[in-house]
């Protein structure tokens, strides 16, 4: 029987919904793994859930994820928002955001997978992010529409006197609180939430969710939008932060239009995550939305480039170099392959839920699944005439496939065209789908090798549900 794809982008099983993922590399009992700590979208009708789970993967295989189970529950069974975990000495500290992020507790464990116990109340606020510096000093960052930071005492809980900084970076106007719109506003590069500090190449890097309130035409953004993970940098931990840029945007593949503007192909939503270096490669962890709201989010991962210019500025994302020197950066592309930079194995059964392109925007969407079944598929639903579903990227190897198989259902006859390289690229196969039939197999009109993007175009009346596809030699 053919093997189903179990990890790509999203990197966790399609039934798991862990957004806000803060990645950390820890060595425990001689084994080095990357651990992910995030909130847990289990309520289904609102953000997050009442427990937090830990997933980890070996540093040499970011597709082999293991769930270590529940690591923390709120002291009063309230909703837990985004956490962070750091190590100091032989102890791991979880900063848990109880009661919808309004009460930040710090709990500890000798195991990075928890359980985290003995919680203590801290004076920190929304979306805490913690940095343990090279000299052992500890800094905390937090805030919602205003950024705060401070140094912590050795107890990992108390703010050191005289170190609290307010509006450490420019903030966005708070659309829910007019009183918070007086000072520190930066309409161009504004802090919204999701503090995530790192130290990279001797620089302090403040990753956060930016809320654009001015248009970003090249990315198809014309309304207030907080689907970005962005950064600022400094030579000091608590102040002096300078302009950085945007690392990722969860609006899917951005189509380039003739007038130079962009067009999103995935419904953007709130964003949260962090940077981590694994095996010499940097990655940004972030999340995307499924369904029709923001209550079924999935963890995503993309490789990013990191460099320091002659002027000391740090560049993160998709970097442009001139004569070997970094001169600018932009958000990395959103892909279906994620950490599998060479592409998804085209010969496995691939769920339609790995699509990173669903166009036109606002029509088809990935249906959330929650059944904890190994290899479960997450279908694309509400497909209508003109819908395209794209997957970047698949790896075909050097021996071209002969056929493509699709599993789908439809309410009326539809023609399905398989295209390569772009949504309007060459048609390499075609199916005629009918109600009552589920699987279709068609020969390929040409050879496909190497790393390629694949798109499915649906034409016809009625509505369709796209479950999975695969290629065969």
At CATH level 3, the topology of the largest domain is Tachylectin-2, Chain A
Query: What is the name of the CATH class of the largest domain?
Result: Mainly Beta
- How many helices? The count is 1
The number of domains is 2
* Class computed from helices, strands and strand pairing: mainly beta
The low-confidence parts are none
**Strand count:** 35
Report the helical percentage.
Answer: under 10%
Task: Produce the secondary structure layout.
Blueprint: E1 22-28, E2 31-37, E3 51-58, E4 66-73, E5 81-88, E6 91-97, H1 98-101, E7 103-109, E8 117-121, E9 129-132, E10 138-142, E11 148-152, E12 165-166, E13 191-200, E14 203-212, E15 225-234, E16 242-249, E17 255-256, E18 262-263, E19 274-278, E20 281-288, E21 298-308, E22 314-322, E23 325-330, E24 344-345, E25 350-351, E26 357-359, E27 365-366, E28 380-383, E29 388-395, E30 403-410, E31 414-420, E32 427-433, E33 439-443, E34 451-459, E35 464-472
Parallel strand pairs: 24-29
Antiparallel strand pairs: 1-2, 2-3, 3-4, 5-6, 6-7, 7-8, 9-10, 10-11, 11-12, 13-14, 14-15, 15-16, 17-18, 19-20, 20-21, 21-22, 22-23, 25-35, 26-29, 27-28, 28-35, 29-34, 30-33, 30-35, 31-32, 31-34
Question: What do these coordinates show?
Answer:
The protein has one helix spanning about 100; strands at about 20-30, 30-35, 50-60, 65-75, 80-90, 90-95, 105-110, 115-120, 130, 140, 150, 165, 190-200, 205-210, 225-235, 240-250, 255, 260-265, 275-280, 280-290, 300-310, 315-320, 325-330, 345, 350, 355-360, 365, 380-385, 390-395, 405-410, 415-420, 425-435, 440-445, 450-460, 465-470. With about 475 residues, the chain is an all-beta fold. It has 2 domains: about 20-330, 5 Propeller (Tachylectin-2, Chain A); about 345-470, Jelly Rolls. Strands 24, 26, 29, 31, 32 and 34 form a 6-stranded mixed sheet that branches. Strands 25, 27, 28, 30, 33 and 35 form a 6-stranded antiparallel sheet that branches. A 5-stranded antiparallel sheet has the order 19-20-21-22-23, with no helix packed on it. The longest helix has 4 residues, at about 100. The radius of gyration is 22 Å and the shape is globular. The model has no long low-confidence stretch (mean pLDDT about 95).
């Amino acid at each position: 029987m053919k093997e189903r794809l179990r990890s790509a982008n999203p990197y966790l099983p399609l039934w798991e919904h862990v957004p806000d993922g803060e990645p950390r590399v820890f060595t425990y009992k001689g084994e080095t793994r990357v651990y992910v700590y995030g909130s847990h979208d289990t309520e289904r009708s609102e953000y997050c859930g009442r427990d937090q789970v830990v997933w980890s993967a070996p540093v040499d295989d970011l597709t082999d994820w293991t769930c270590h189970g529940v690591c923390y529950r709120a002291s009063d069974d309230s909703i837990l928002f985004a956490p962070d975990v750091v190590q100091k000495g032989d102890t791991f500290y979880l900063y848990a955001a109880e009661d919808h992020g309004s009460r930040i507790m710090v709990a500890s464990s000798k195991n990075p997978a928890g359980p985290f116990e003995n919680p203590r109340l801290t004076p920190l606020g929304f979306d805490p992010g913690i940095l343990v510096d090279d000299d052992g000093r500890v800094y905390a960052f937090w805030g919602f529409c205003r950024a705060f930071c401070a140094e912590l005492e050795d107890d990992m809980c108390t703010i050191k006197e005289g170190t609290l900084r307010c509006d450490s970076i420019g903030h966005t106007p708070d659309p829910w609180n007019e009183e918070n719109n007086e000072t520190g506003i930066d309409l161009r590069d504004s802090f919204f939430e999701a503090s995530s500090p790192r130290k990279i190449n001797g620089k302090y890097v403040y990753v956060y969710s930016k809320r654009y309130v001015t248009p970003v035409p090249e990315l198809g953004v014309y309304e207030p939008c907080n689907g970005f993970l962005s950064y600022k940098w400094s030579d000091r931990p608590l102040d002096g932060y300078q302009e950085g840029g945007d690392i990722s945007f969860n609006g899917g593949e951005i189509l380039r239009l003739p007038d130079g503007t962009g067009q999103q192909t995935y419904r953007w939503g709130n964003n949260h995550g962090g940077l981590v270096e694994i095996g010499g490669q940097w990655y940004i962890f972030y999340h995307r939305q499924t369904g029709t709201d923001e209550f079924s989010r999935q963890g995503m991962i993309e490789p990013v480039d990191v460099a320091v210019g002659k002027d000391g500025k740090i560049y993160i994302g998709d970097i442009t170099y001139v004569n070997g020197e970094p001169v600018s950066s932009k958000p990395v592309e959103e892909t279906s392959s994620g950490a599998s930079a060479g592409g998804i194995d085209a010969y496995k059964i691939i769920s339609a839920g790995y699509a990173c392109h669903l166009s036109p925007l606002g029509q088809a969407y990935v249906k959330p699944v929650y059944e904890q079944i190994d290899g479960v598929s997450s279908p694309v639903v509400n497909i209508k005439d003109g819908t395209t579903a794209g997957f970047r990227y698949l790896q075909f190897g050097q021996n071209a496939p002969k056929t493509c198989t699709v599993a789908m259902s439809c309410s009326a006859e539809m023609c399905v065209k398989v295209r390569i390289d772009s949504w309007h690229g060459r048609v390499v196969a075609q199916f005629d789908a009918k109600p009552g039939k589920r699987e279709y197999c068609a020969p390929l009109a040409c050879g496909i090798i190497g790393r390629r993007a694949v798109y499915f175009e649906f034409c016809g009346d009625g509505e369709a549900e796209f479950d999975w596809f695969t290629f065969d030699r």
